[in-house]
Amino acid sequence: MNKEKIGRWALGIGLTGLVLLFLLGRLGVQKETGTSEVIQPVESLAAKASGADRSSPRPRPSPQIDMLIYYEPGGTETSGLVVVSVSCQRVRNAALERELSNRYAFYKTKSSPIEPVELQMPREEWLKRILFSVEGDAAAGRRINDSYAIRKWPGKESVKFTAFEECDLMIEIPSAAKPPAGAKLSANLDVGVASIASNTITVLSPPAVPREDAVLACRVHQLLEAAGPLQDAAEKLLAADPADFDGYWFLGQALEMRGRVEEALAAYEDALKRSPLLVKSDEEAPFHLMFRLQELSRALAEKKP
Fold it and tell me: What are the structural domains, with CATH classification, of the chain?
């Protein structure tokens, strides 16, 4: 092989490499342009259509705000609870794309800041703008909307959605207004010119076993941080079965909420002895239980002189 052929091949390989680098650079610029685009805040959309007809269909907001709901039915005689999580998937996707690009891309471009999306909504507005509906049962939807109460909200009138921040609310539904078993529950958040639809949840039938009904009631009291009702419900579980793991776990939660750390630690230790995983197998204890044991043990150790 003569030197002339080798030179031509080397030149061809070099030019191909330059073209590839140029194309990668162009792709990188396009990605950054997409992620650093200024997203119009939702509050400006709401301001433009403060008097909009809420019954008319509206498009999704440009920042791609998403809403997910989770339903905790509670016991037969207790309230139900809807956990609402509002986030901006567009901002999260942009941050993830940038992270992957910075970690794995061969050709990196100069980063531009990812603008967060800001939603301004005072507490009373959340009450007005979240509407629940029950598929095929308009009366059930009206009962929910007429009686629900927000028990937990962001605590501030301005929420910024970033890659790691979202808005969580807890909405309590009285026992008499809870959707019936088999109903399909969904929600809409009205932000002016746009209406954000949630996922749809099928309401399960109430448990036939009284113990399971009591556990569902405990879970609602726990989420609402209602220490008194939670302790009463936990003690009822233990009265029915002194070896009930959930009874000791919820009792520890209630005592911890009340600041009775030593009693809470003792309840968690009793729960550990009765963990279903430890009783039936050699598996490890539940993580949440071990975490609370470690945290309370550390807190008590720091108090000692």
Answer: 42-202 (no CATH), 210-303 (1.25.40.10)
CB count within 10 Å of CB 14 equals 10
CA distance 148 to 171: 7
- pTM for this prediction: 0.70
Give per-residue pLDDT as tens, 164-217: 677 888 999 999 999 999 999 999 988 766 788 899 999 999 888 889 999 999
* Cβ pair 133, 141 in contact under 8 A: yes
List b or e across 148-163, with b for residues whose CB sees 16 or more CB atoms inside 10 angstroms.
bebebbbeeeebebbb
